[in-house]
Amino acid sequence: MSKLQNALIGGVRTVLGHLPAAWLPGASPDQLADKRVTLGTQQPRIDGPEKVRGTARFAAEVPMDDLLHAAFVHSTIARGTIAELDVTAAEAAPGVALVMTHHNAPRMKVPPTIGLTNLKAAGNHTLPVMQDAEIRWNGQVMAVILAETREQADHAATLVRMSYDAAPSRTRFEEGKAHARTPDSMLMERNRLEKGNPARKLAEAAVSIDATYNTPWLSQNPIEPHAATIAWQGEKLIVHDATQMINATAGSLAKVFGIKEEDVFVSSPFVGGGFGAKGLWDHQILGAAAAKLAGRPVRVRLSRASMHRLVGGRTQTEQRVALGSDANGKLKALLHHGYATKPLHSICDEGFGLTGRSLYACESFDIVQHYVDLDLLANSFMRGPGEAPGTFAIECAMDELAHALKMDPVELRRRNVATCDPVSGAPHSQSDIMAAYDMGAQRIGWGRRAAEPRTRSDGEWLIGMGCASGTFPFIRMPGTSARITLDSGGHAHVASAAHEMGMGTATVQRQHAADRLGLPLDSVSVTIGDSRLPFASFAGGSSQTASLGAAISAASDKLAAQLLRLAGNDTPLAGLKPGEVRFADGGLRKIDDPARYESFASILKRAGREEVSVIGESTAPLEMLKFSMHSTSAIFCEVRVSEVTGEIRVARLVGAFDCGRILNAQTAASQFKGGMIMGLGMALAEETLLDERSGRIMSTSLAEYHVPVHLDVPDIDVMWTDIPDPRTPMGARGIGEIGTTGVAAAVANAIFNATGIRVRDLPITLDKLNLG
Amino acid sequence: MPISINGADHPLPDDPRVSLLDLLREREGLTGTKLGCNQGACGACTVLLDGERVLSCLTLAVQADGREVRTIEGLEGPDGALHPLQQAFIDHDGFQCGYCTPGQICSAIAMAQELRRGDPSHVTADLASGPNGPTREEIRERMSGNLCRCGAHNGIVEAIEQMLAREAL
């Protein structure tokens, strides 16, 4: 993340700014934005029966003969070296086949790390894995035990004796701030943004606020623990993994072990929840290394505690926001400064500093974020990275400004809504956040809100309402590809190494392919989840649907051309070019002369072909650099707070989303609600507790890390504007992460409205409410 | 005595320390029952023991000696038709990734029986007279031991309501 990157991306943006939009991907709106048959309708998940029967097979359930089970021994200090490592008792324990430490582990390279330029890289940190005696975080794996049963492995792990030469460690956020570094860039953007004269504008503002907000370390905690069933067949490595990065894991493991990419097979048809956690961490590497040493297949399944020690979560942040406006609420200055923990060995940017530069038009900006380097586990991208903590700070600050102005918070947003990119001036591809606000306000009955805090109550319960904006960028990944195979029976099969962790990937892309190819839904099937299928980038950044959608669209163009070639001259389609025909009624039809038609079956039969197969690929996403492309939302919340105990209950939650067109009403609603519930957890319950003296995570179970349970989740209303984005495949933007953004602020703002108490530290637990 | 699992007899494991969860998943290949935490905090491993819900990770297999265990694999009808609650989960999208789903379904089946029996819960206003019907509040409280991280809570509660409504007909 460098100055060079800033210069390159800035240069491309400048060039694209001068190019006509017609030359870029998405030049003309995808006809499927409007012409739809199954897209947009409610379709049940095609894998639903397998999931409710319990027959969907997850990574730890793949049967394999001669399997060994792995257990890990973790370091208990944050920094230092191993002085003594005695594994004799562990080796002698019943059932133990292997104890692997840095003494006998095979030489392995550091996996290539996730980045903008290498789609085959999945590494989350830059540290060597079990190659030396050095300890870099509290919880690093010191030894791997392989035994005939998991119980035997777990028991033997307790018999490993270790002592350390401890070194001074840096594990305190406050102390680390003094030495924080300031990166040049943040994902694809410059980190530091100064526009106008924010200091003067703040000083001159008629109304201003200035506050600091804190968000804690959070952990994804998918219900399926990380797992992999791993086997070597000679030089070939087979990994049944739980991953949202199939091809990247295969590519990275090839580099780690110095073998050919085509000799690594990664399969992951079902993932039991990811949320950014299911990438390549040390456990797959160690499992594969141990399997190689032992000469037998290995199953790794992380205990809940090991998940917390080995898989990073969302990093802690401290954010200062200052806003200044004129007396009418028009923003004059937006300052957003802050810190996030990001060890030097960590890869993932928690880019909260990007939030404030897309939502609101403002005369001046002063935005920068700094990284605190601590001796901790690398962090990762957790659902809504950047924008989830970023919207907490910015949207609470907007609420504070509205209160200072004595203005309705929705009205404050209306007066400042951005009509183009507030920083670059680039046009939006599509954006109508106020349509979302209007829908949401009507649904929750915003008119019932009392402007003055702590004025509504029901017995001991104080009642309040709050709102906040959510936002997440549109991302389409290049390189994702899909194969369409069309057979003489008129059935189309779509294949791609894409991922299913609950989003409904195959369900939705089946709808897409059916509409794209003019076929009924039951004439289309979809296979995903295996690295031997055509390449797909990761399931992250809410990018998979757009990326895979672009690939299927490209493949369908190729398919039309291929079918016309096969059709030859003895056909009603003779002489037509691909642009002159469309898919319809199980065949190709001339666009302006519907009588000229031939069915797929007829074309293939005459050509003597059983099937025709093509591969299409998502091209470079230049539209992301030409246009300002963001999904947005308006979140509304009603809370009840006990005046006696401080207990907070969320009574209602409404999310209105402006995310382009919705592809499947049922799975989309579930994505939105799911994201919002993770936002509820962030608001009220979730916190990974670190012992700052030792750098050890204390909350390593689901009894100590609190996620929302059924009784915490009210009826949630979700709705969407459904306005097509003319620059995206199917007119849709990603929806997987935006649900999480804005929710914590809406809850905090509702709590302020109910109680008059402003809590700026998440999670908002009852001990932080002094209702006196 | 053998353990009856979904109607078929299985011998007790020779090691008395084997959990019911490990018996099902590791020894009998019944992987429909999920392991989420192995410490009783998530509910993913919920199965029915003589019709009552138990966390199979905290139940020793020997505790099922001579008793009937029903897992997600044993819920469908003899013709392979889905149990009404399995179908309701599909109808209401009561899951996303599907990992907590078997535990949610097993838990809800036993919960319905607890409601019918009139067992009170934390949100029951009058403990002596029992729950005031299958309200959403009662369902939510009683299902709170089954965690879902994808956030399918609304759909799960709606699916359970659908099953209860059909039973009441």
UniProtKB/TrEMBL annotation, chain A:
<dbReference type="Pfam" id="PF20256">
    <property type="entry name" value="MoCoBD_2"/>
</dbReference>
<keyword id="KW-0560">Oxidoreductase</keyword>
<dbReference type="Pfam" id="PF02738">
    <property type="entry name" value="MoCoBD_1"/>
</dbReference>
<dbReference type="InterPro" id="IPR008274">
    <property type="entry name" value="AldOxase/xan_DH_MoCoBD1"/>
</dbReference>
<dbReference type="Pfam" id="PF01315">
    <property type="entry name" value="Ald_Xan_dh_C"/>
</dbReference>
<protein>
    <submittedName>
        <fullName>Xanthine dehydrogenase molybdenum binding subunit apoprotein</fullName>
    </submittedName>
</protein>
<dbReference type="InterPro" id="IPR016208">
    <property type="entry name" value="Ald_Oxase/xanthine_DH-like"/>
</dbReference>
<dbReference type="InterPro" id="IPR000674">
    <property type="entry name" value="Ald_Oxase/Xan_DH_a/b"/>
</dbReference>
<dbReference type="GO" id="GO:0005506">
    <property type="term" value="F:iron ion binding"/>
</dbReference>
<dbReference type="InterPro" id="IPR046867">
    <property type="entry name" value="AldOxase/xan_DH_MoCoBD2"/>
</dbReference>
<feature type="domain" description="Aldehyde oxidase/xanthine dehydrogenase a/b hammerhead">
    <location>
        <begin position="53"/>
        <end position="168"/>
    </location>
</feature>
<keyword id="KW-0500">Molybdenum</keyword>
<dbReference type="InterPro" id="IPR036856">
    <property type="entry name" value="Ald_Oxase/Xan_DH_a/b_sf"/>
</dbReference>
<dbReference type="InterPro" id="IPR037165">
    <property type="entry name" value="AldOxase/xan_DH_Mopterin-bd_sf"/>
</dbReference>
<dbReference type="GO" id="GO:0016491">
    <property type="term" value="F:oxidoreductase activity"/>
</dbReference>
TrEMBL record, chain B:
<dbReference type="InterPro" id="IPR006058">
    <property type="entry name" value="2Fe2S_fd_BS"/>
</dbReference>
<dbReference type="InterPro" id="IPR036010">
    <property type="entry name" value="2Fe-2S_ferredoxin-like_sf"/>
</dbReference>
<protein>
    <submittedName>
        <fullName>Xanthine dehydrogenase YagT iron-sulfur-binding subunit</fullName>
    </submittedName>
</protein>
<feature type="domain" description="2Fe-2S ferredoxin-type">
    <location>
        <begin position="1"/>
        <end position="75"/>
    </location>
</feature>
<dbReference type="Pfam" id="PF01799">
    <property type="entry name" value="Fer2_2"/>
</dbReference>
<dbReference type="GO" id="GO:0051537">
    <property type="term" value="F:2 iron, 2 sulfur cluster binding"/>
</dbReference>
<dbReference type="InterPro" id="IPR012675">
    <property type="entry name" value="Beta-grasp_dom_sf"/>
</dbReference>
<dbReference type="Pfam" id="PF00111">
    <property type="entry name" value="Fer2"/>
</dbReference>
<dbReference type="InterPro" id="IPR001041">
    <property type="entry name" value="2Fe-2S_ferredoxin-type"/>
</dbReference>
<keyword id="KW-0408">Iron</keyword>
<keyword id="KW-0479">Metal-binding</keyword>
<keyword id="KW-0001">2Fe-2S</keyword>
<dbReference type="InterPro" id="IPR002888">
    <property type="entry name" value="2Fe-2S-bd"/>
</dbReference>
<dbReference type="InterPro" id="IPR052914">
    <property type="entry name" value="Aldehyde_Oxdr_Iron-Sulfur"/>
</dbReference>
<dbReference type="GO" id="GO:0016903">
    <property type="term" value="F:oxidoreductase activity, acting on the aldehyde or oxo group of donors"/>
</dbReference>
<keyword id="KW-0560">Oxidoreductase</keyword>
<dbReference type="InterPro" id="IPR036884">
    <property type="entry name" value="2Fe-2S-bd_dom_sf"/>
</dbReference>
<keyword id="KW-0411">Iron-sulfur</keyword>
<dbReference type="GO" id="GO:0046872">
    <property type="term" value="F:metal ion binding"/>
</dbReference>
